[in-house]
Specification:
The protein is 26% helix and 28% strand. The chain contains 9 helices and 14 strands. The structure holds NADP nicotinamide-adenine-dinucleotide phosphate. The site of NADP nicotinamide-adenine-dinucleotide phosphate has 29 residues, from helix 1, helix 4 and helix 5.
Length: 303
């Protein structure tokens, strides 16, 4: 099968398209024929991180460096190993390969049904492989961090970096909780952020929200890791909370199932900025690495 292999750290040209052996599911594993995958900021970090750092971190947290790239995947179950109970051949599934050595930038991937890191769930019938593949990392991250606070109807929530993957999901999730959402982004993305459900969108170059009369917000979520709490603390109400994408997060199957439900109901819609083929993986990584993608970047693996 065709796969994107990463054997060393460095620039996008360390990624190689290779013919590798198709995997076979072991007990408890599912073989997925991958339809779509993605390139996330995490994929870029993993590619750039020196093996000298990655190997010791992996030893501490119990994973090995990824050989086939691509944390997110969506596809169809082609085979199931013994002991698999939740999935059947032909099921449409999506998830993450976090902590696995072989990822979703490949024609096939084996994922454990129960895994302490990567997660997998069914794709609702009315959700496309494209939308499913780009949802898990950004939406689970936004969900995990926003849920550190109980967001209720009428709260004022500001999402900084609202045009990125985590940011665009955070805007929609906060809106689903009934919050009044303000998104901060560049001028070019103001309309996109309003389309995601923000009642207000501020251009960070022209309209510094930190210098406005405050306090105004119940929650300020830095979804891109570019502002500090100290810079915007005066904009937080006395009970307000500052949240950051820099916090550690945990992927959970229940969260992915919940998000699948929102996708099916049309209450969550991933924004797909650009689409690349598996053969264009280096271009896709170079694009994501610029730090200016809008929402998510899709990799089409098969038709
Ligand atoms: N904690 C976790 O588990 C976890 C999980 C996933 C991601 N992350 C981290 O979260 C961060 C965001 O990830 P992501 O995938 O959402 O990023 P991303 O999609 O690559 O973010 C790109 C977006 O950020 C905006 N942006 C860039 N500089 C900005 C600035 N100074 N102020 C406001 N917006 C700015 C860009 O818009 P403009 O071009 O319009 O500025 C662009 O739309 C990354 O650092 C990633 O590593 C953490």
């Amino acid at each position: 099968m065709k796969a994107v292999v990463c054997n060393k750290s460095g620039r996008p040209d360390v990624l190689e398209i290779k013919e590798v052996q198709k995997p076979y599911p072991r007990p408890g594993e599912i073989l997925v024929k991958v339809s779509t995958s993605s390139v996330t900021r995490g994929d870029v970090h993993l590619r750039r991180m020196s093996r000298l750092i990655l190997i010791p971190i992996g030893l501490i947290f119990g994973f090995k460096p990824m050989k086939i790239t691509g944390v997110e995947f969506a596809g169809t179950v082609e085979e199931i190993g013994s002991e698999v109970t939740r999935f059947r051949k032909g099921d449409r599934v999506f998830g993450t390969a976090t902590g696995l050595v072989f990822g979703g930038n490949a024609e096939y991937l084996c994922v454990p049904e129960n895994h302490k890191m990567g997660v997998i769930a069914h794709i609702p019938d009315n959700v496309t492989f494209e939308d499913a593949a780009v949802t898990p990392v950004g939406a689970m991250t936004a969900h995990f961090i926003l849920n550190k606070v109980k967001i209720t109807r009428g709260m004022n929530v500001l999402v900084y970096g609202a045009s990125g993957s985590v940011g665009s999901f955070a805007v929609q999730l906060a809106k689903n909780y009934g919050a009044n959402v303000t998104g901060v982004c560049s001028k070019a993305n103001l309309q996109m952020v309003k389309d995601m459900g923000a009642s207000n969108a501020l251009d960070y170059a022209a309209d510094d929200f930190c210098t406005k009369p405050g306090p105004e917000y119940d929650v300020i979520f830095d979804a891109v890791g570019k502002i500090s709490r100290s810079r915007c603390v005066r904009m937080l109400k006395s009970t307000g909370r500052f949240l950051s994408v820099k916090y550690p997060t945990k992927e959970k199957s229940e969260t992915l199932k919940y998000l699948a439900g929102l996708l099916a109901e049309g209450r969550l819609k991933p924004f797909i900025d650009q689409e690349f083929s598996l053969d264009q993986i280096r271009e896709a990584h170079a694009y994501v690495e610029k730090g200016r993608k809008r929402g998510n970047v899709l990799i089409k693996v098969s038709n």
